[in-house]
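User: Second chain of the day. Same drill as before.
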Amino acid sequence: MTSALSGFIRRGAAFLTPTGSSTHLPTDGIFTTAKEGNLFPKVDPAVDGEECDHDCESCTIQYPPKWNIEEDGKVYGLFKPYATHMIVATGKSDWVRDVEDEKGSVMEAVRDCGVKPKNGRLMISASNMPIPSSSTTSDNPTDQPTTVLLLPTFTIIENVTPASVPELINHYVSPSITNTSPLPFPPGPVPPEAEVSAPARDDDSTISLKTQPGGSTSAQLIPQALPDILPTTHPFSTRPCPHSALILLCSQKTRDARCGQSAPLLRREFERHLRPLGLYRDLNDERTNGVGIYFINHVGGHKFAANVIIYRKASMTLEGRPPAGATVQEKEAVEQVDQCIWLARVRPEDCENIVKQTVLKGKLVKPERQLRGGFDRGRGLTSW
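Assistant: Same format as last time:
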């Protein structure tokens, strides 16, 4: 057996095997802790164009005059490692100080149900994703259904109630792949002499995102249907998230007023740059291959506001393309998270190149000032 083939089998086996819980998440001997500067590539004007590292000159949005954050010191590595991320639809953009104290919520149930994921730490975020319009008439808050988005599988799980959280954890979260589960296929080479292109119209067309030399974007693939793993009589239903990338903005002003101020301003500026590319998706827009922008609760480090988390599917990265004759598991992996990029100290004038370079190509514009960490499953790297 060749070393390449044995390596491929080892990566595939690790993909199918849940990792155990620990303070520092396990990496199955495959993932490497990246030193600062090595986790994601930095833009290069010679490759990405002279404007790739410039602030947006057309930006008119500004933070309040008294805006003040901690500008000194490194931020790399300043967050808790986690295995999976659950984003809960609440229809709100602000919450009580600790979202687990929201009475009758899924967040409270995750904390109090007594069932812990078996594959590592679950990060839970309340979000402004809309709650289902057809809610139960029951007065019991634990009967009220909502929707959650589970990452890194990019799976939407519907009809979740606080009372059903133990089943949700046992049947969906614990068996899930994690942020340190390798993609089940080896990374592929990046072809030279390519360029970035965007759809000419804002419709359901598949996006063509080719790379510039040294870049890392690719054509999008339509999400594969994900089967339920529970009996059909169970209230949960699942479907793949249609977005190719997510931008998460901390908006919780009850924790820090700066988050409540910055999130709406950044969303407007991100939208301004995503719309001409046909990529902007509002909260009710489920056309495929776009970029969703959600408000979420406190993620730590509000003194470094604004905090922005970007999730990119493997379908956006040439290193995440399945080989010819790919299996069903490999095709499904293309619709999972490949990269998570945590940024701090984001300002409105940063948004243009965060869209063009980070969201579309997985590159960093100001890593020394902004990168808090993240992971790259295709390259087997984490910041922890």
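Residues 14 and 375 are 16 Å apart (CA to CA).

User: Great, on to the next one.
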